[in-house]
Amino acid sequence: MALSIMNPDLASPPQTSKIKMALRITNPDPASPPPRDPSQPKERKTFGVEIEFMLATLEDHVEDLHPEEGRTVRGLGGRWTGLYDHIATTLKAAGIPTIIDKGDKGSYSWTVTDDVSLFTSYTFGYKWISVEIISPPYYFEHAALDKVAQVVSVLKSTYRIVCDESCGVHIHIGDGLRGLEDDTLRLLFAMLWTFEPQLDTLHPAERVGIDAYSGSLRSTSWLGYDQINLGRVDPKQGLEEILKATTNAEIVRLMEHKYRASGYVDRVVYNISNMKKPYLQEFVKRTIEFRQHESTLDPIRITNWITVCHGLVEFCDTIETSRIEKFLRQHIDESPEEYSIIQMLNDIGLSPQADFYASRLTKHPLDPISGNDDMISRREWMV
After folding, report:
1. Strands (E), the chain
2. I want to staple 167 with a disulfide (CB 3.0 to 4.6 A). Which of 36, 175, 295, 344 is the partner?
3. How far is CA 2 from CA 5, 344, 351, 355, in A?
4. pTM for the whole thing?
5. Residues paired with 344 in a beta bridge
């Protein structure tokens, strides 16, 4: 079944170009975004990216065990006492507006901040410092993907970095300050529920399943948790539960992490929490967060994954509802062996990404993709 959306070929390395515009939406009451005028064409979706990694520093009296690696490793200071300033200055020198952030929201610059959940098992005499780089919101277009590629290229050419197992790449997809329409949200999570086993094959084993920060929809969402507790895990029934939801509250209740309402930080791998209405006026991030991808500074891997996340949302926002529901019911009971992620990507109009991932899956068929075969890997220096 071939259902197609318009999508550029982003499987190749991006080329640097000027960004047309970042997200700047004027709205007097962000807590109550105006409804979209159905007579007007839809705007491009917006995206953001968060990249986590561990950065190596050396004190002056400590021997450098990897002098051949070059790049800056001494005189960087601590998190808030030099290093983050150094990173921001480096990126600004490359023409990338960057700030240091300790909690401010709504910035239109790249942001350098901390994530205390990150760690690494490497030592080699280094003092390892956790870093999270957060993009501003961009409209989805080639120029914005080029900027992401430029940022990671500057980072890996300047610093010694390891992307260890605790680190990830998180993608946010939204529609400006409007959030996503309830029907788009319903169809998107129906699609993610249906194809979670296929999507899992794109990621390493440690990023799949039950995890405090990226739990499976089918096991850690309220819907999945309720099915497990009742002793009848039934993907088809779960799909119908999602499809019959009619309000934002019903969709969020089914798809949010089972502990989220209790104040825990736990999040499902496809995090719906930012879409809960009413939106908080001071919190402008109204997005779906795709949390599963392992950390990497490979621009081709990052931009292809951004494109897949965007493509999933765009598909659910543009294709006729009845066609999507038929498509999901057709495949809900099929395993990745019966209906692969490559077939699914082709069917929703992401053929360049299907080709990209097919070349990687040939090395690890039907298993979560390992990052260890890459030059850019959590177990090798970024070169």
Report:
1. 46-57, 98-100, 110-113, 127-134, 138-139, 161-162, 169-174, 270-271, 287-290
2. 295
3. 10, 9, 11, 16
4. 0.84
5. none
What are the tens digits of pLDDT across the range 59-104? 888 888 888 888 999 989 887 789 999 999 999 999 999 999 855 5
CA distances from 232 to 40, 226, 229, 236 (A): 45, 9, 8, 11
- Going by C-alpha positions, the residue among 115, 149, 220, 155 that lies closest to residue 382 is 155
Instruction: Give the DSSP per-residue string, 245-291.
Output: --SHHHHHHHHSBTTGGGT----BSEE-GGGPSSPPTT----EEEE-
Structure tokens at 40: 């007007």
Residue 111 burial class via C-beta count within 10 angstroms: exposed 0-12, middle 13-18, buried 19 and up: buried
**Residue that is written with structure tokens 């929703």 in the block:** 348
**Look-up of token digits 């075969």:** 373
> Tell me, what amino acid is at 31?
A
**Cβ(208)–Cβ(368) under 8 Å?**
yes
Q: Tell me: the pLDDT tens digits for 221-275?
A: 878 777 776 777 789 999 999 999 999 999 989 888 766 544 444 678 899 988 8
> CB-based burial of residue 62 (10 Å sphere; 0-12 exposed, 13-18 middle, 19+ buried)?
middle
User: 209-248 burial string, b = 16+ CB within 10 Å, else e?
Assistant: eebebbbbbbbbbbbbbebeeeeeeebeebbebbbebeeb
Residue with tokens 């995090």: 271
